[in-house]
Every structure is written in structure tokens, then in C-alpha cells.
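Good morning,

Attaching, inline, the C-alpha cells for the sequence recovery test we're adding to the shared suite. The designed sequence is right after.
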């Protein structure tokens, strides 16, 4: 199971680094989505910062495994918020939230294993 968890860590780090960079650089697609969610733009920076904290926790978890559960819980909360933003605030079609759902599932896996 350790190998599976390491692979999940790598996947989460890669996807969240992409998400963080899109938020901090304010890509057109991210700004458009944020407007659809009806969140203030400053909240994008807060979200990106929390994602960064989670990524740092995942990296530290290679040496200090206790950080893995912290990052898993943080990402679970963030992905529940993302699903809420997609479905409730923006009323997106389910396909738009597949990435958030996949990240949620991977985050839950690292909490419990």
C-alpha cells in the first residue's frame, strides 16, 4: 500500500501545483470560473495559498508521515468546497467537477490508509 500512497502523493502534488500556478497567475479560465462561482477575487489567493500549504505538507510527508493526514484533510475540505462551487454556486454540469471529485477521492484515500 505504501507504493500506492506515494503515487497518490505525486499525483496530488502535480495537479495542485498546476492549480496553484493557475490561481496565482490569474489565467483567463480560472478568473472566468471564479466569476461563475461568484467568489471575490481575493479568495482565489487564499485558496491557492491553502493548496500550497497542502502541497508542502505532502512533500514533507515523505520524511514525516504525520503530515500526510494533515494534507489529506486540508485537500478534502478544499475539494468539498470546489464541488460546492461547481454544483451549487455556478450550477455547472457534472463533467466540470470530475477533477475536483477525483482529487477528493484521492485525498480521502490518503487520510485512511
Amino acid at each position: 500500500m505504501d507504493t500506492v500512497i506515494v503515487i497518490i502523493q505525486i499525483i496530488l502534488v502535480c495537479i495542485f501545483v498546476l492549480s496553484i500556478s493557475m490561481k496565482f497567475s490569474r489565467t483567463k479560465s480560472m478568473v472566468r470560473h471564479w466569476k461563475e462561482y461568484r467568489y471575490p477575487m481575493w479568495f482565489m489567493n487564499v485558496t491557492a495559498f491553502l493548496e500550497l500549504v497542502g502541497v508542502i505538507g505532502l512533500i514533507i510527508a515523505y520524511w514525516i508521515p504525520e503530515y500526510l493526514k494533515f494534507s489529506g484533510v486540508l485537500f478534502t475540505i478544499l475539494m468539498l468546497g470546489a464541488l460546492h462551487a461547481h454544483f451549487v454556486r455556478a450550477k455547472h454540469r457534472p463533467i466540470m467537477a470530475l477533477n475536483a471529485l477525483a482529487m477528493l477521492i484521492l485525498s480521502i484515500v490518503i487520510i485512511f490508509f
